[in-house]
TrEMBL record:
Keywords: Signal, Transport. This is ABC superfamily ATP binding cassette transporter, binding protein. Residues 1-22 form the signal peptide. One of its GO terms (cellular component) is ATP-binding cassette (ABC) transporter complex, substrate-binding subunit-containing. One of its GO terms (biological process) is maltodextrin transmembrane transport.
Length: 416
């Protein structure tokens, strides 16, 4: 998607750095194109290894398409490997030396904003983001009422399963699945553990997810019941702990029949299961006789520009292009990265696609928008420790009330 820019005449470069990028473009773009003149631009880009594979280089293809769409630039590219998950860690070391354009998981947004390392989208970028995405996805790249980054895929997880082991009815209930065959679940990972607590234990994060002063809250009695349920799951002979992606290896080896992960594992799972490959939304689970829907964290992966970039206008244009409809379609064709662009996912090509349906259903109906504020960092280690206390049998059905109460008290004082 080509982005047009307008320039506020008379702004100094220093002042322009303080404004959304809509004010930093050039009104001479069209003239430059019509006259055939070019501007020499250097852009450094960080992207995952998978997007730069020798035989399947999506980044290189997208850069060449961007050059074709912007003949006013003569671009020298410098590409390096930094995954979306590692973006904030790498950027924070020195924002001024970080890439001009990078891809990130939206849970890092608060840290990137605090570091002054991510640019607010300009007017045209914002229009693109709004046209392509649902409000929940727009919220996923919003902080303090401002929008940062251009989403290119939803970032959530769902369930892969072996169709020879489970029926269409079985996969509606986690308990039914555990009664039938081995299931892997990352109980010691806070990104997954909350899915079994938000509904059953009234777990909330910072009010609407944006107010750190409201903290992380939970109902102690309900948490006790939910903890007893988690203990029963951990003690089930068909439960297998997925630790550091061991679940995928177990699935490939045939040791388990269901695995919770995201679209990034689709190709490997399809290869492992062949004709028995299945992808589905999240099942329900039962605590104290009541059925609850598992609820995953949801967010996005997005492209962003660095406000410290020397060629800030071109950097922002390329970040927007990485999230354009054209680029998202190519991303899916080359790597099965499911588009966030609703005009693509609602098209005939994607209707009936099992993988797209699983991810879209979770993102739209079975999810909680993951908070992007920095205070969210306090959740991960605490949740991991609680999950480990269950899988290591330190927390049991007998002491669940005591352990649940202590954890609730710990969560209540976080960020206050």
């Amino acid at each position: 998607m080509k982005i047009n820019w307008t320039k506020a005449i008379g702004l100094t470069a220093a002042a322009a750095m303080l404004l959304p990028l809509a004010a930093c473009g050039s009104s001479n773009d069209s003239a430059a194109k019509s006259s055939g003149s070019t501007e020499e631009v250097a852009l450094s880009v960080w992207a995952p290894q998978e997007d730069q594979a020798k035989d399947n280089n999506w980044l290189d293809k997208t850069e060449k398409a961007f050059e074709k769409a912007h003949p006013e630039y003569k671009i020298t590219w410098k590409n390096d490997v930094v995954s979306e998950a590692d973006a904030a860690d790498t950027v924070e070391k020195d924002p001024s030396a970080a890439a001009d354009v990078y891809m990130f998981a939206n849970d890092q947004l608060g840290r990137l904003v605090d570091a002054g390392a991510i640019g607010e989208v300009g007017t045209n970028e914002l229009k693109q983001v709004k046209e392509q995405n649902t409000q929940s996805l727009i919220d996923s790249v919003s902080n303090g009422g401002k929008v940062y980054g251009v989403p290119y895929t939803t970032n959530t997880w769902f369930m892969y399963y072996d169709k020879s082991a489970f029926s269409a009815d079985d996969i509606k209930s986690l308990d039914s699945m555990l009664a039938k065959a081995k299931v892997a679940f990352p109980m010691t990972n806070g990104w997954y553990l909350q899915a079994l607590l938000t509904k059953s234990a009234d777990l909330t994060f910072f009010g609407d997810g944006t107010d750190a002063s409201k903290g992380i809250t939970v109902d102690k009695d309900k948490l006790t019941a939910a903890t007893k349920y988690l203990v029963s799951v951990a003690n089930n002979p068909n439960f297998v702990l997925d630790n550091e992606n061991s679940g995928l290896s177990d699935l490939q080896a045939g040791n388990i029949k269901a695995y919770f992960s995201g679209s990034w594992d689709a190709a490997n799972v399809k290869k492992a299961l062949g004709d028995n490959y299945g992808a589905a939304p999240l099942p329900t689970y039962t605590v104290d006789g009541k059925s609850y829907q598992m609820q995953a964290f949801a967010g996005s992966k997005a492209a962003a520009y660095n406000p410290n970039a020397k060629n800030q206008k071109a950097a922002a244009q390329f970040a927007a292009y990485l999230g354009s409809s054209e680029s998202q379609k190519t991303h899916y064709d080359m790597r099965e990265v499911i588009p966030s662009d609703k005009t693509l996912t609602s098209s005939d090509e994607f209707k009936g696609n099992e993988l797209v349906n699983a991810q879209s259903t979770v993102a739209d109906e079975q999810s909680l928008i993951q908070p992007t504020i920095s205070a969210m960092n306090s959740w991960w280690d605490s949740a991991k420790a609680y999950g480990e206390s269950i899988t290591n049998k330190v927390t049991t059905a007998d002491n669940a009330a005591e352990k649940a109460s202590a954890w609730a008290d710990q969560l209540a004082v976080m960020n206050k």
